[in-house]
Structures are given as structure tokens and as C-alpha cells.
Known about the structure:
alpha/beta, 434 Repressor (Amino-terminal Domain), Rossmann fold, 7-stranded mixed beta sheet, 4-stranded parallel beta sheet, elongated
Amino acid sequence: xxxxxxxxxxxxxxxxxxxxxxxxxxxxxxxxxxxxxxxxxxxxxxxxxxxxxxxxxxxxxxxxxxxxxxxxxxxxxxxxxxxxxxxxxxxxxxxxxxxxxxxxxxxxxxxxxxxxxxxxxxxxxxxxxxxxxxxxxxxxxxxxxxxxxxxxxxxxxxxxxxxxxxxxxxxxxxxxxxxxxxxxxxxxxxxxxxxxxxxxxxxxxxxxxxxxxxxxxxxxxxxxxxxxxxxxxxxxxxxxxxxxxxxxxxxxxxxxxxxxxxxxxxxxxxxxxxxxxxxxxxxxxxxxxxxxxxxxxxxxxxxxxxxxxxxxxxxxxxxxxxxxxxxxxxxxxxxxxxxxxxxxxxxxxxxxxxxxxxxxxxxxxxxxxxxxxx
Length: 374
């Protein structure tokens, strides 16, 4: 599935000659002989700016593109004309002239949930600021080969990929095309290829160490789907328990697939089995923490008085949940912004730039779902 965020519309209609005449009756000629709808302002062109500043069109172009061959006095005249006329450069014309595309692709395994909404908005904002269009491609059940084909045939100038299904061998094949790429939460770097990574191991360790400091010793874990994020968060869970010589009890390790409803269902099953509840649950994302709390509260178990719960991601609703969720803040907006900024850097370096690896650190957000255990 492909979703396009373009903020421009093309209307294709079939009109009779009579309708066309009716439309033209509402048009008026401009000085150039072109027609515009009455009430519509004619688009300001680079020629208008040049006329206003009394300079050549090439001079205006040099000023707007930062070419350092124009005197300060002339530059000031041009910029004043731009401001006066409210001139906006035509980005499509710019890219067509340079034989470049102005579209980038964001390839995701899902668009469900607050995490993906925040990520997508951050990527889109950076693209919009630079005059690029953003296409979003979602492939949650496709094979690695299908995802590879989707990326190669997309026609975009560069790609941001957040999809664990794309295997390394296909990444290497894409690299041969020299398409600028940025991978989220997967470490690749090389010519035209970068990565931006949230340190999930660090975030998971922070969550577990906090629970230990609160006096919790028997701690359960709720898995998400089987991906690298959950794998690293669970690894942190295991590492901290081993560090303090605490047992790993599989009876209090559940799988909620990153969904509130499934975590709620799994917790209900646990309660019906009569298994001794842990002191606390570490949930691999906030939605599952909500499901966990809902099931516990419904069963008459008080959070945090009887069981503490900590989440991961710190999505927007977590601060307004009752009780407000203690969680690990995952810098999702920074993740999207950094990924888009890096991709545009690679694109604008004319395919000759070495890649980078950027690590982002999560942080603890203490609210109301964890309590010191005496």
C-alpha cells in the first residue's frame, strides 16, 4: 500500500464547451496576455522580481541560490524586492531544470499508532521545509524481495527505510544503485547510506534499573512483535535481572504484539490462571502498558499500590492516562527529523557523500504508575 503526502491537487474534469465559455467569462487578461480568474492574484515570477529590483533575471537567481558573485548592495535590492512582492521560488521548476526529482520515500512496516504518526509528521516537516514531496509506502506482510522491488521501482530520489523485513542482502543490492538511503534502527553506513538509531538497549536498561531502585525484584515483561526494538528491550530486561542475580520467570513473560487490546487479553489470561503477580511489569511500549493496567484495574488490583507498570516510547496520551504512565521517552520526533535531514544531505551532496550513524538516547519519564516497594 502506498500513501502519498503531497499537499497539492490535480483536478481532471470533462467540461462542455458551454461550461468552458462560462468559466472564461469570469477571467480577466493580465499585462502579459495570460488569463487569471477574477479575484485571483497573478503568480509573482522571477522576472517580476528582476524588474522590481532593476537587475537581470540571472542576478536574482544568483542571490536566491547563494552564489557569491553579487555585491551586497545589489543583493539587498533583490531581497527587498522578494519581500515586497512576496515571491516564492517554484521548486518544481528548479528540480526539473536540474534534472532532479523532488520526491523522497518513507518505507514503513506499519502506520498504526502514535509512534508512526509522530515519526511521519517529523519526516514530512523536514521534507516540506526543503521543498521535497514525501511518498509513504507501507509493507507489513511483503517479502524482502517485494520490499526491495518497491524501493527500486518507486522513482524517488532517496529513501528512509524503517522495515525489519528487508534482509541485509537486499540492502546490499540497493546500495549498488547508489540511491541515497537512511535506515531507522538498523546500523548500515557507507557511500550514500546512513542510519539513525534509538538506543533501545540503553532505554530498556534505564527502565529496569529504575524498577530495581524502587525495590522491585520479581519483574514481568510484555513483548511486542518480534523485531529489533523488542529484542533489545528484552535483552536489557534479561541483563539487569542477571546483574542482580534475580530469576527470569517465564510465567510472567507475555506477548502483546505492541497492541493495547492484545496485552489486555494476555493479562486477563494470566489473571485467570491464578499465577502469582510480579512486583512490576516492564512493557515494551506504552499501548501494551495501558492494556496491562486496564486488565489489572478491572480485576481489582491497584496500580501502582500493588503492581507497578512502566512503558516505553512516551507517546502523547501517556501523560493524560489515569494514572499517568511512567515510561521511557523515545525521541521519535528527533528520530524522524534526523533521518530526513540526513537523507536530504545525502541527496544534495550529488551522491558522493559518506554515510553516518547517529545514536539517539531515550530518557526516563517518572509519572504515577510506579511506586516504591517496601
